[in-house]
Structure formats: C-alpha cells, structure tokens
What we know:
Layout: H1 17-38, E1 51-52, H2 55-62, H3 64-87, H4 96-115, H5 119-122, H6 124-136, H7 154-168, H8 176-197, H9 199-204, H10 207-216, E2 221-223, E3 229-231, H11 247-263, H12 267-276, H13 280-307, H14 314-324, H15 329-355, H16 381-410, H17 418-439
Antiparallel strand pairs: 1-3, 2-3
Helix pairs in contact: 1-16, 1-17, 3-6, 4-10, 4-15, 6-8, 7-10, 7-11, 11-13, 11-15, 13-14, 13-17, 15-16, 16-17
Amino acid sequence: MILAHGLGGSTDLPIPATYVLIGGAWALSISFAVLIFAWRTPRLDPARHWVVLPRSVSSATDARATRAVVRTLGLILAAYVMLAAFLGPDDAANPLPGVFYVLVWVGVPVLSVFFGPVWRVVSPMRTVHLALCALLRRDRSRGLTRYSQRVGAWPAAAGLFSFVWLELASTDPGSLTAIRAWCVGYAAISCAGGVMFGDTWFERADPFEKFSDTIARMSILARSADRELVLRNPLDGLRSLPVLPGTVAVIAVLLGSTAFDSASQIPVWRNLVDDMSSSPSGGALWRTGGLLLLIGFVGTSFWFASRATGGVDRQQRAKLPGNLAHSLIPIVFGYVVAHYLSYLVEMGQATAILLADPFGHGWNLFGQQNWEVSYVLSENPAIVATIKVLCVLGGHVLGVAAAHDASLRLLPVGHRLTGQLALMVLMVFYTFGGLFLLFGG
C-alpha cells in the first residue's frame, strides 16, 4: 500500500531505543546550557549571507524566458497527472496517489530547503492565474477585493488540515475518487481566491505554497535585499517568516500531523481504533479525533510556553507565539525528513515509473519497463533508524538555537534566561515524544 512508510524501527537502532530517548533529551538540554554561555547576544540576521552568486546566475534564473519555461512545464506536468488520474487505470497502477502524497507533499518541501519556495514558481494554479491576468490585461497583484489582514494564514492552515485528514484519518486515503475530488476542490478554490484577492491569496492561503514557503525560510539558497542570489546560514532566514494570524496554526498542523502519522502506527492505538470502531466511518472518526488532539496539543502547548515569561506587557506577550513560531521550522523539517525519507526515495522511484506509462497501455518510452525500484533503504533499516535520530535531534537543536536567539532579541534583559525555560522544557518534551513515536512502537 502506498501509505505504508517510515522504515527503520526501534529494533533496528544500533543502541537500545531507551538510550536514544534519554540521550536525545540530554543532548537538547546540554545544547541549551552551552547556548546560555556561548550565545549571549542576538546573532541571526536575514540580511546576512556567506557569498553572493555570480550575477549571471541571478540573471539566468530571473529571466522571463526561464520563468515561463518552468511555469509551463509545471502546468503541463499537472495536466498530464490529472489526465492520468481520470483516464488512467483505476487501481494502484495510477500515478496520482504517488504524485499527490510523495512528490508534492514530501518532495516539494525537501526541494524548498535547498532552492527556496519552489511551489511559488511551479504552482499550476499560479500559472493559470498569471495567464488569465495577462490575457485580460489585469494586474495580477489585485483582485476584486482586498485580502483581510485578520484572515492571515488561516485558510492555508485549513487547507493543510484537509490534506492531512485525507491522508491520515479518512476511510480510504488511497481512494482515487477522494484524491480527485480533493484536487478539483483545491483547483476551484484557488481560482476563486486568485480572482477575489489576486496574488495575495496564493502567498497566504494556498496550503502547498505556505508549506513550501515556511520550509524555505531555512533554505541555503536565498535572495539578498537587492534581489541577488546568495548562499546563507539556514538559521539566518528563519526570522523572515511572516507573522500572520494563523501562522502558529500552520506550524501546528505540519508538526502535529506528522506526529500523528507516527502515533497511528503504534499497535496500541491501532488496536484501540479497531476495538472501538464498528464501521469504517467509526474508525475515521477516532482517527480524526486523534489527529485534532495532537495538532491541538502542539499549537496550545507552544502558545502557552511562548507566553510564559515576565517583564513584558499584555500586548507584547500576545505577540510572542507568532514571533517565536519560526523556531519550530527546523523541528518540522527534521521530523518530516525522519518520517518520510524512505517513503520519498522508494515510493518516489515507483511513482516515476508509473508516470512513464500513466494510462497503463504498456508504454516503454524511456525503457522504464525494465526499471526496478531500488529498496536500498529497506535493505538497510539500521542506517534509516540512525538517520531518523540525527534528523530529529538536529532539527530540535537548531530549533533551540533559533528560539534562544529570538528570546535574546525579544525579552527584557532580566528575563532572557527565565523566559526561555518553559519553551526549553517543551522542546525537550517534543524531542522525547518525537523519538518515542518514531521508535517506541
């Protein structure tokens, strides 16, 4: 089944899982202690970079022809996949689930951490909107009405939740009918949003673009203030995350849903759902409750921990969760890679093979009939388990560093240490919980 992913369990670790859990919590605590003494002033700056790439690289990347080609290819690929979705085989040989769950949901954020917000460029709905605006000679940045600042990123959070609900809680995540309906609904809402609010809709409300843009804040490749391409410290870009209503909700959905995906594989939970459900819809209801519970816990616990400091007034305290939300981005990315790496590598290969014969006619255009999926990760579960641990711990250490730097910048002098303690304890709990969910089952 296409959703069976997450290779490498507790029995595959080179050391006992209990030691990993305890060691992870200690590693994070020690990292925080080191930061207290070695990192005493704010250091992260989105304007700073390591090196400026040659102007010829920026010119080639920004050329109208280059952008047009990339957008056209993205639109053609989307049309190609949707044709296969409706005209291709109505079984596991259809490439739609692989593209939907693997290449888009996992592949796009991985590309974004290296090349920036790629979905902004390849998004088929942005391309359609751009083409219509050019045809009608309208300003693409303006719609029929203005996008409300109060709405912020809440539509993106809702869109992301609808995606993870389909994947993790619905009665049949692999159903072609359900995925087709989701894609059609996404296209219709995107078109309506573009008409109503212009480009602002895609920037703030498109779930895939918001996911890509959020992860891209720690991209090595970035833009300087004068639009030059630069290479930078991934942590420097985190502060550039826009603080909008719903930003914490977006992060909570991304982190909480991935945690639930791991939790749903634990036998105790699966047995509970099976025992308490007399029908598929009953199981979906239990899974929906579990998904909401974990997402709500991530968002609520972070909200309280961020505000648990003294020395600030009511207005400043209310802004702290949004101003600290960027510190969770490395944790989200680390956990996504830890959880979906084998899924991306192996199911990504299978999806590429299916895309070469999307209608099941036996095409052999690229000699793909002789291709075989390389299960290199499945054959080396100990390596996968080790990578998981490193990704989770690395993401949390970077998150602690980002939170520490932000606290130095945001909190009064007398509360810069004590104001971080609640958030530090929460991140240790996230680390312990994340490792337990990945390996404890």
